[in-house]
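Deliverable D5.2: sample structural annotation.
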Amino acid sequence: MSESDGCTWEALQKRAQVLRTIRHFLDGEGFTEVETPVRIPAPANEAFLEPPPSGERWLRTSPELHMKRLLAAGAGKIYQMGPCFRAGERGRRHNPEFTLLEWYRPHEGIASLYGDVAALVSAVLGSCMEPQVFRVAEVYQRVAGWDPLEAWDEDRFDEDMALKIEPALPQKGLVYLVDYPAQAAALARLNPVDPRVAERFEAYLDGMEIANGYGELTDAAEQRVRFEATVAMRQARGLPTYPLDEPFLEALPKMPPTAGIALGVDRLVMAACGTREITDVRSFCDLL
């Protein structure tokens, strides 16, 4: 391979090994691998994710909505690993096309995902990873000097997350940031004890965010309200908006209580290869 291809043959071999390890782990846990459409008629309306257009449809930013329709139809534990797309995302850790892994545990709570992530990362890296756990509100109070549960400000929350919170987290090992504010969890259910908090956590490996997990929302009326609020916000900011996925909303009440998570495969491969550059682990990056 030429240097212009970005990654080496050794890195591609390591990537293949990581993919095999992921499948071996999830297959061993009783999950079934599924495939859902990449080109879709209605992407999820999320605050700042931009699906690339593909004719009259869009390339998916994740397989989430179709996988939840499978769960609503009676599927058991499922996972999917494949290409996803987000326009305008390019940098050391981002590429417009990337590989995403999602898995879902019906009839289980978000805590089941804590063990999954630690076990999967340990299997890939070949060493036992014990996560450190931090609560969002406590970290914001300590590092940024304010509590997002008491005084929500979306722009300030996102800016402080990037510039203050993430750099202050431990930069070695596995870290879970848990109990996100309700306003920062578009598809997660709220904590029944404290509705200011959503059932959401993010996992960081050596200071790099690798996964985002939810206790999934199954209330279709509430999900519609959240989607419509996001559409209104995007309209106010002059951003593109997308049609609501009506088949997804129709199916959602049939979906059982479920824990689900999305993990960036490229970033996990980066950790396995000891690099901070996504171009080192993907062939032919930045072609979109």
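Annotation notes: The chain has a mean pLDDT of 95. The helical segments are 9-28, 64-72, 111-125, 136-144, 154-168, 220-236, 246-251, 265-273.
The annotation will be released with the project's public dataset once the embargo ends.
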